[in-house]
Amino acid sequence: MQLYYTPDISGNIYTLNKEESRHCTKVMRMNCGDIIHLSDGRGCLYEARIIDANPQACCVEIESVEENYEQRGYHLTIALAPTKNIDRTEWFLEKATEIGLDQYIPLECKHSERKTINLDRCNRVVVSALKQSIKAYIPEIAPITKFSDLVSQHFDGDKFIAHCQESDEKRLLRDACTKGSNTLILIGPEGDFSSSEIALAHQYGFKDISLGTARLRTETAGLAACHTIALINQ
Amino acid sequence: MQLYYTPDISGNIYTLNKEESRHCTKVMRMNCGDIIHLSDGRGCLYEARIIDANPQACCVEIESVEENYEQRGYHLTIALAPTKNIDRTEWFLEKATEIGLDQYIPLECKHSERKTINLDRCNRVVVSALKQSIKAYIPEIAPITKFSDLVSQHFDGDKFIAHCQESDEKRLLRDACTKGSNTLILIGPEGDFSSSEIALAHQYGFKDISLGTARLRTETAGLAACHTIALINQ
After folding, report:
1. What ipTM score was computed for the predicted complex, to two decimals?
2. Is the pTM of this model over 0.80?
3. A124, A169 in Cβ contact below 8 A?
4. Burial class of residue B176 in the structure, from the number of CB atoms within 10 Å of its CB (0-12 exposed, 13-18 middle, 19+ buried)
């Protein structure tokens, strides 16, 4: 099944952009009358028939739409400090999109080795993962956010911070999270969160969590958190 | 903490190989009297003192050893068909080493797009992950194995096959696996297992499992299986 990402879809007729038109007609060799699928990234999966196989502007007519396609029964936001090697963060985004993520917030921390991120590249990664894994929901990529700004924002749900420091309060995410809930998880940079960042998170009601005894890289911790929430909701 | 992989360690004195000696003395600037750590990949984590900071042959004396260092209470073998893009399989190996894997068997299936694998490269990936995540156990990398040969081998533990075909018998791995057990999980190639491969696995007592509703790439499915077993054993 060939999926095209069409966030700007509206009405019954849609024209693929130049790149998608070329891919559809030249690479996939689709012709007039053939069926393709479209995703708006907001929960709608469309079945559409090609009415003009123009390699510059392939035009399709919507035949049917499935709303809330494979909607998950929970909402997950992961705020993760971008890794020094950005490939690792992009890898996290690809895999988290496959497994299930609603929002990614690049986090700027005291020990961050990288304080900028290319949002266009991040969006390209999640679009490609959406197409590959046939998803109707695409994770939202937020602008890079300072730790203090993020933790002080209101969030209506479970708020967790995964850090490597000793803590009596630390519970396994597996046991601390609740099925069907709205969850925000903070994952620190290679150098971990600072003690003052952890204290600030506690002030704003974040709970300490552990992902287990194994030492995990930042991006692995992010994916382990994402998969733990998916597993609890299975 | 700087970890060196020393599978050939024996006795109280050890000489790092040329590459590790250079890294230890030139890159890490370690000197005579400094403490480094060694892992034999079979459960022993050593604390050793440098007695000759020779950049060609750095010699250390073992001061203490911790046996069964962070030993997991379960044993996991994942047989996964190497992906067309080998980076994805190597990525799986790195992450599975971080999270916890005992053996990787590259699987040759009917629909495999890749029927060869560079075992030296695989071993380099797991050694580097072992050092980075401070592990005393290294996953064993088996030679590439034909599907029919693998499923017909005796295995003393839970045997699962993760395929995408419809099946009434399919249970979530989360519910089907047992804590503390010896587990073998088969993950198919991009084109999935063939019906005859699935039937053959059933003949040999493999149970159908699902990793959830999300469509996962081969390497993502492998890691999701690995993390599910880790989570059940937390």
Report:
1. 0.91
2. yes
3. no
4. middle
